[in-house]
Write a structure and sequence with these properties.
Layout lengths: L1 H6 L3 H35 L8 H4 L28 H13 L19 H5 L19 H10 L22 H12 L2
Length: 187
């Protein structure tokens, strides 16, 4: 107990706690805004069929998903083979067009839920890996929320141009600076 009491008297530890708290409060504050705007973006990308899995909609090979070590075996497509679907391909294309770098995070999203769940569209704008099991905006971390706002061009209509100026990719863009700062703080 004595050890933990002492811990709080260190300035560095206190600053670290304050930074964590500030990230949590900011994230909670942005979550409802993100939710509302993602619902609008969800409508804009169109309606998929609801039967196609993400694997079906990604041609083989597509880097970085299909990292084939064996010639006739793709670990990404092991259970679902690529197949064209007019409706889902259209939605997929619209998601790509909404992505600032044209590189949606397909591994994070479940295409079967694209029509029923706006969050599955939002997940396409998250960092490439590690978010597939995150079930809602509120479960996402600060990094995820800022990444969506940065990567999804819909947010250009909602944010002051000073937040995105100079336009990403540019480390002087305030939203990108926030991500760099957060990455530094978590080490
Ligand atoms: Zn489909
Ligand atoms: Zn493949």
């Amino acid at each position: 107990m004595a050890a933990s009491t002492n811990m709080f008297s260190y300035k560095e530890t206190n600053n670290w706690f304050k930074a964590c708290l500030a990230l949590k409060i900011t994230k909670d504050g942005l979550a409802n805004f993100l939710k509302t705007e993602l619902q609008t973006a969800h409508t804009a990308v169109g309606i998929s069929c609801g039967n196609c899995s993400t694997e079906k909609l990604i041609p083989c090979p597509t880097l970085p998903y299909c990292n084939k070590r064996k010639r006739h075996y793709c670990p990404f497509h092991k259970s679902q083979k690529p197949q064209q679907c007019f409706r889902c391909d259209q939605v997929k294309q619209n998601i790509t067009l909404h992505h600032r770098y044209n590189t949606p995070s397909w591994r994070n999203t479940d295409a079967k839920k694209w029509t029923s769940d706006f969050w599955e569209i939002g997940k396409c704008f998250l960092p490439p890996d590690g978010y597939s099991s995150v079930l809602s905006v509120h479960e996402s971390d600060f990094n995820g929320i800022i990444s969506i706002m940065l990567n999804c061009t819909h947010f250009q209509n909602c944010l002051s141009s000073s937040c995105l100026s100079p336009p990403p990719p540019d480390r002087r863009s305030p939203l990108e600076m926030v991500l760099v700062f957060q990455a530094r703080e978590s080490y």
